[in-house]
Amino acid sequence: MNTKKKYRLVTQPGEWACGVACVASALGISYSDALRRLEKHKGSKVSDRPRGLELDPIIRVMTDAGVLITEQTKYRQWPPGTIAFLSEDWGRYKGGGHYLLRCPNGWMDSWVNFPDTPRRSAYRESLPRGTRLQVALVPETSPDGPLETGSRQTHVQGQDQTLQST
Fold first, then answer.
1. What ranges do the domains of the chain cover?
2. Burial class (CB in 10 A: 0-12, 13-18, 19+), 21
3. What residues of the chain score a pLDDT lower than 50?
4. Is the backbone of residue 130 left (phi > 0), alpha (psi -120 to 50) or beta?
5. In b/e form, how buried is each residue of 80-106, taking b as 16+ CB within 10 angstroms?
6. Global pTM?
7. Closest by alpha carbon to 97, among 86, 106, 107, 105?
C-alpha cells in the first residue's frame, strides 16, 4: 500500500460514489481500483439499483485488504479509517445517505458542497450538522497490524444518533 495516498482527499465523480471515494482513501488505492473491487462484491455497477453501496461490499473489500471491521451505531470518537454512513432516512442526505471517512486530520468528505456541482472534497472538523449517524464501520485492524483503540462493540441495533456538531 502506498501510505502517501492513504487518507487523501478523493472527490467523488458521480452522485452515488461517496463509498467508493472513502474506500479508495482508507486503503490508499486508486479510485478506479476501489470501484472495481466494490462492484465485484456488489455484483453490479455502483450506479445500478439499488444505487450506491450497501455496507456489505465495503466491509468485504476492507476485510479482503486485511482490515477487520465492526459496526457501531452509537456516536463516539472513532479512529482513523472509520467510515461513517449518515442516515438516508432523515436530514441533509435524505433519500441517499452519505459516507465520510475519519482521517487523522478530520473527516474526508468526498462531496463537501453537496448538492452543488462541480463536486469538491475537503476535510471537515466533525460530521455535518443536521445529520444522523446510521452506522459507523470501525476498523479493528489495519494492513499494518492491530489498532490500539480499546475494545469495540459489535453491531448493535438501535436508534440513529442525531449529530449536533458543525
1. 18-163
2. buried
3. 148-166
4. left
5. bbbbbbbbeeebebeeebbbbbbbeeb
6. 0.84
7. 86
Model confidence over 34-65: pLDDT tens digits? 999 999 999 999 999 888 999 999 999 999 99
Report residue 72 as a C-alpha cell.
Answer: 457501531
**Tell me, what's the pLDDT at 165?**
35
CATH architecture label of 18-163? Alpha-Beta Complex (3.90)
- Output the pLDDT for position 142: 58
- First and final CA of the chain: distance in angstroms? 32
Q: Which of 42, 33, 102 is nearest to 65 (CA)?
A: 33
Distance separating alpha carbons of residues 159 and 133, to the nearest angstrom: 9
How many CA atoms lie less than 13 Å away from 50 in the CB half-sphere? 9
Residue 164 pLDDT: 34
Cβ neighbors of 150 (< 8 A, separation 6 or more) are: none
Looking at residue 132, its amino acid is R
